[in-house]
Amino acid sequence: MELGPTGEETASWRETLADGRWPAFALIMLGIWLMAADALVTSTIMPSVGRDLDGYAWFGWATSGYLVGVVAASSCAGWLSDRIGLRPAMIGSGLLLATGCAISALGADMPVFVAGRMVQGIGAGWVAGFCYVTINLVFDARYLARVFAAATAIWGVATFVGPLVGGLFADAGNWRGVFWLFGAQAILFALAAGWLIPASKGKPGEGGLPLLQIALIVIGVSALSSAGVVESGMVQILLVPVSLFLLAAAVILDRRARARLLPRNAARFGTLIGAAYATYFLLLAGEVGFAIYAPAILQFTIGLSATEAGYVVAAEAFAWTVAALAVSGSGPVWRRRWIVIGAACIPSALLLLSAVLTSGLLVLIVAGGALLGSGFGLSYSFISRTVMASLDEDERATGSAGIGAVRDAGAATGAAIAGIVANLTGFASGLTVESVALAGFWVCAIGVPIACLGLLAAIRLTKIARKFA
């Protein structure tokens, strides 16, 4: 056991897994693996999908469509787990994820492929949301630093393994096999949930399902994603402000709704949870363009295979994992410092990558990806821990599931914005020297101001957290 500077206890790994907690821990890690790997492998195979299905214009949609499903599902994960119980909820989410994988594997054109991605997103969103609910139910506050460090490490490993697996399948000319592989793992998750999670009765709870807020978020992100696909410039100009208005409306309405999507103070930037959610949203929105477009750009500019491009992108994952594990035992003072340091790394990395992504200078590209991953590794688990520890008992399920909803809404929004920017450079019409050079700059550069706002939110978060220390 370790003591932070204020005397707060951080449990050891042995204590964290003791007293029958290891089965829940194992299932949580499997669920997070499914979410992370399924989401991230797609960026590696998308150049192959784009060639086979004539879908370069749909690169952003393939990610944002998936994340739209994730947001819709994770937004109501807490509500659903309360009503039907965790075991049937987890089993159903695994089976739905497997169904989405099958649709994508069988897709003959991009609309069907994207539809499969959306179904996968719903299944994966529920998997992740239920995992966060399980964390809150099983692990006390002093275990959270270790649990979230492990979860962050799983994300890092998945980011490393996912592109590599995707690259191997893509290089073999069988990108569809990736989805059959992950469909099988989703079925394994459903079986494990039935074995490891004890049966429990659902409870009526208070309030209903926040359908209006969920619908506004889904329509808003879908409209933003569509702006990158439509050819009419006038329609694009209209869709962007309309989509942003719908996202803002969802947040404003949620603050006043009886059936809330997020905790009551989540929309107030001056509160701890509001600043934390803003940090999640903005940092993920700024980062995601690199993950989506880097593999295709590296294959075109340097002539890398899908597997080799996956290795380059994996620098982000490796750095994320190393950084998360290195600081997992930090005390309260350093947790706050790491949040700010990590958040500062992200716009710095995006600025570097915007300058070098199409340069062919692999060392600098790897360094930029590593700095990007380090930023999330240093900060992510401590932001999650801060949110969890601040929640009241009656908001623990909603607030913990809200972590995934806000994070993925940010990533979906960022993917849509990156898609618009990339397609405006001519990327949608096919890869040329000019379009790739412009896309390589702008998909990273557009994230710099967004991530800078995330840094300001992280600073605000730590100032508020210091008052409660």
Characterize the structure shown:
The protein is mostly helical. It has a single domain (19-201, 209-468), classed as Growth Hormone, Chain: A (Up-down Bundle), CATH 1.20.1250. The protein is built from 17 helices and 2 strands. It has helices at 13-17, 22-53, 59-75, 77-84, 86-106, 110-138, 144-171, 176-196, 211-227, 233-256, 272-302, 306-326, 332-356, 362-390, 396-424, 433-445, 447-468; strands at 2-3, 9-10. The protein has a two-stranded antiparallel sheet with strand order 1-2. The longest helix has 32 residues, at 22-53. The radius of gyration is 21 Å and the shape is globular. The protein starts with a strand and ends with a helix. This is MFS transporter. Its main location: membrane. Residues 24-463 form the Major facilitator superfamily (MFS) profile domain. Keywords: Membrane, Transmembrane, Transmembrane helix.
